[in-house]
Structures are given as structure tokens and as C-alpha cells.
Amino acid sequence: MQDLPAGHLEQLIRDAARGDGEAWERLVGAFAPRVFALLLARCRDPDLAEELTQSVFVSVSGKLAGYRDVGRFRSWLFQIAMNRLRDEVRRRGRHARPAGGAEDLEAVAGATEADYQDLSPEALGALGAAMGGLSDAERQLVHLRHLAGMSYQEIADLHGEPVGTLLARHHRAIAKMRQAMEDSGFTPEDLQ
Amino acid sequence: MSTTPRRSTFAMNQRQPHHDEPSVDPAMESLLGRYARRMAHRPGLVDRVLAAAPAPVPAPIRAQWGEARRARLALAASIVGAVVVGMVFMRPAPVMSMAAAGSSIEAEPVLVSLLAGSDEAVLDDHPFGSELRSMDSDWSMLAEEIRDIVAVAGGAR
User: Fold this and answer.
1) CA separation (Å) from A47 to A14, A148, B45, B96?
2) Which sign, positive or negative, has the C-alpha torsion A27, A31, A35, A36?
3) CA A165, A175, A35: angle at the middle one, nearest 5?
4) Does A146 reach chain B within 8 Å, measured CB to CB?
């Protein structure tokens, strides 16, 4: 995942909207992995997450020329992603599975040995178990904040909740996860 | 007590773009950052997304398409208008109107003759039906007069 320099995003959006293929590629390169990670964490199905990611960007491509809401691109993009997922879940007549434990996370990640260089299976398992202990609202906030890379203000715009409420919820979620990991014999510092 | 201020100071120094609040737990944040990279890892994802979602259509082309559509709509509207106007002016005028527009010498007998077909024919509060039938019992003449007047009116138009 590559982070765009501050202030660069709006220019990139304008260029892409004018049909600049290179700008569009950079925009997709910057955000498709984040959209995929968010959808994967929510639906636990890599193929569905990728299918929905493609659908999200097809939609963004069609609407970007008319995009005028400067400064809220992330909120707009991830709102489209969440709506796509909700529609798909409704269409299939089932609910997205909530985040589960270690085995679930490893299965979802579909990782090879090389993929674990950045995060060991143990760390992934401990984190998965800790995340499984969160409420859905807390888990969604952690996903939006850390997988989608959204700011609290952007999440507040997305959910229509006060920033202070989100800050308190996030603080509580992180504390819960730390406690759960320590209870199972891991500390985040050990996993660095 | 002493760890929280140090964490906040560290987090402020590590503040990321678009993240509007420093972390209260850098170790957890770091772990979650690696988790995010792990979850986002999908070989070939960006290429497949780019193949499925082409770059947005440039605005000028969209404008041209809009103008072309407006031109097509204007053309269709003018054709429909022409057809409607043509239907109005090509429609045969009623015999009464043609008679009124024609010469008074020819029109009046026809008008009277037409009315004479009915007992209710009344002109100036006077029933003409029976009188006309007695005056002109040969109805073939009336038909001939009608044909003449229609021919005159058609020729004038």
C-alpha cells in the first residue's frame, strides 16, 4: 500500500477525472489494496473481496468526472465499498461473517511462507483472536482506521458520528485488543 | 502513569498523513499497520482492477456526446413539428368552410340544399326544408351543385 503525499490526492483526482491514464493508475494503485483489505476483513472471502473491489473502481471510474466533493474522496470511496458489500450480502441472502480467530485470519489471508515476513502466523493469530473480542462497531472502526487508512474526521463523515465518540471508541478497542493479547501470552511489543 | 505521556509524545512524532489523532498505543498501532499490509496483499490485484475499470472518460468527450445528443433531440423535435404542421394544413377543410370561403352565388344554394335534406332546416326562423323539396324535387341537381362547389373550392386551395 502506498500513501500519497498530502495535497497530492486532489490533484491526482482532477487529473484522473480528465482522462489521465497514469493518474488513474496511481489512484487505483494507492486505494485498491486498501479497499480490498477493508472488504476482505468484512466479508472474509478473498474472491468476493476482489470482485467487489473491481466493481467499486468501475463505479468510481464512471463517476469521477462528476466528483465535486473536494477533500472527502476517502469517505466517498469507502462509502461506495461498504454499500457494494452490503448490497452483495443482501443479494446473496446471507450475512458477512464477523472477524474470527487465528485460523480464520490465516485462511482469509491465504498466505505463503514468504507472505509472513512482515507478520508471523503467531502474531496474526493473536491479533485475530483479539479482534474477535471486539464489538462490531469497534471492529468496524478499527478496520476503517487501520485497513482503509481513514482519519477520524473521514470516519465521522462516513458514519455521521462525532469525532470525540469515535476517538473514545477507538481508544477502548485498542485497549481491549491489547488486554486480550496479553491474556493469551502475547504483548504487541514482543511481536515487533 | 508514566508510560502514557511518553506514548503520546512518540505517537505525535510518528503522526501519519490523514491521521488526525496521535496513537495512544504505538505498539498496537504498529501491529495493526502490519496487519493492514498483510490483508491488502493480493498479487496482481491492481492490474486486474485496472483491466476491469478503465480510466474515466475525459470531460471534453462527454461534452461532445452531450452536444450530439442535444442535436439529435432538436432534429427529432423539428421533424415531429413539421409532421404535425403538415397534418393540420393538409387536412381537407369542411364543406361548410369551403362554401363560406367560396363565391356567395355558389355557396348559398349548396348550403341551403344541404340543409334542405332535413326538416329542421331553418333560415331566419323560417323552415325551408319542405319549400326547398317542393321547389327542387330533382335531388340529382343538388348533388351536382355540391360536386361543382367542392371542385371550385379544391381548385382554389
Assistant:
1) 31, 18, 11, 80
2) positive
3) 65
4) yes
C-alpha cell at A136: 462490531
Phi-psi region of A112 (alpha: psi -120 to 50; beta: other; left: phi over 0): beta
- The residues facing B126 across adjacent strands are B123
Confidence of residue A10 (pLDDT cuts 50, 70, 90): confident
A83-87, A158-162, B12-16, B77-81: segment of lowest average pLDDT:
B12-16
A13 burial (CB, 10 Å; 0-12 / 13-18 / 19+) is buried
Amino acid identity of A98? P
Identify all chain A residues contacting B58, using CB atoms and an 8 Å cutoff: 18-19, 65
Q: How far apart are CA B67 and CA B60, in angstroms?
A: 11
Contact B57 A19 (CB under 8 A): yes
> Quick one: angle between helices B3-13 and B26-40, nearest 10?
40
The average pLDDT across B80-108 equals: 64
Contact B18 A21 (CB under 8 A): no
pLDDT tens-digit readout, B98-150: 555 554 444 455 555 555 555 555 555 666 556 655 555 566 676 777 778 77
DSSP state of B126: E
DSSP states of A113-156: GGGGGSS-HHHHHHHHHHHHTS-HHHHHHHIIIIIS---HHHHH
Which helix (DSSP H) or strand (DSSP E) does residue B127 occupy? Answer: strand B126-127
Q: How many CB atoms lie within 10 A of CB B60?
A: 10
Checking ipTM against 0.85, whether it exceeds it is no
Interchain pair B45, A58: CB under 8 A: no
Q: d(Cα A29, Cα A36) in Å, to the nearest integer?
A: 11
Closest CA to A135 of A162, A98, A166, A107: A98
Chain B contact for A76, CB < 8 A? no
